[in-house]
């Protein structure tokens, strides 16, 4: 027996709109690298400047779904179009990217918005609705890094590490960001203030929640100075 894979968007699935509406096929695109290269006149050498601003950049990806729409067995095309209208209005409602969860990628989500390249084909009392999501290049892991819960821990690719530290004076900390890219990290401070240096970039952090701290991918060496406790909160991003 084959497994039925669905998707969820705005807390709904196609079957929530109509019990017979289901995903016929999907095409989860792979984002392209943004390359910035220059060649030297009269030479065969080309220089790649794609990472000059910190890490390889990627274009958005496209995810396309084909959804079966079934009306009635009496050939009621009005029923088909009624269901199609409900589906497309649900999917096109937001005007910003929202979490898109696909059953084939458990534990991760995409940031997606339906913008263009949508179509509908009908055949008697059935139809096929094709919807295209423009997505942030990376899948985002639902569980934050540093989670050591036995039931939710990823034993295939998870990293067991501490994300909470008590700071007194100066301390070196090594974090592992298993993402393919640098990510935004939220740092929560009690006590403080605390100074944080990452790859030569210095952040002066006050008590409470500090956002938009850039955490490079891979092994990250941090120098933390001050007195208090510090908590790092970020989510893995992968292709």
Structure description:
This protein has helices spanning 14-17, 77-91, and strands at residues 7-9, 22-28, 33-34, 37-39, 46-48, 57-58, 61-70, 98-102, 108-114, 119-123, 126-135, 139-141, 164-177, 183-198, 201-205, 208-215, 218-233, 237-238. It has 2 domains: 7-137, Elongation Factor Tu (Ef-tu), domain 3; 164-238, Jelly Rolls (Sandwich). It starts with 6 loop residues before the first strand and ends with a strand. With 239 residues, it is mainly beta. β14 (183-198) and β15 (201-205) form a beta hairpin. The strands form 4 sheets. Strands 1, 2, 7, 8, 9, 10, 11, 12 and 18 form a 9-stranded antiparallel β-sheet that branches. It is built from 2 helices and 18 strands.
Low-confidence stretches: none
Instruction: Tell me how many strands there are.
Output: 18
Cα gyration radius (Å)? 23 Å
What is the H-and-E element order? EHEEEEEEHEEEEEEEEEEE
Structural class: mainly beta
Oligomeric state: single chain
* H/I helix tally: 2
CATH class of the largest domain: Mainly Beta
Largest sheet entry? 9 strands, antiparallel
Mean pLDDT: 89
Distance between the termini: 30 Å
| Helix coverage percent | under 10%
Q: What is the correct CATH architecture of the largest domain?
A: Beta Barrel
Q: Tell me the CATH topology of the largest domain.
A: Elongation Factor Tu (Ef-tu), domain 3
**Overall tally of structural domains:** 2
* Relative strand content: over 45%
Global geometry:
globular
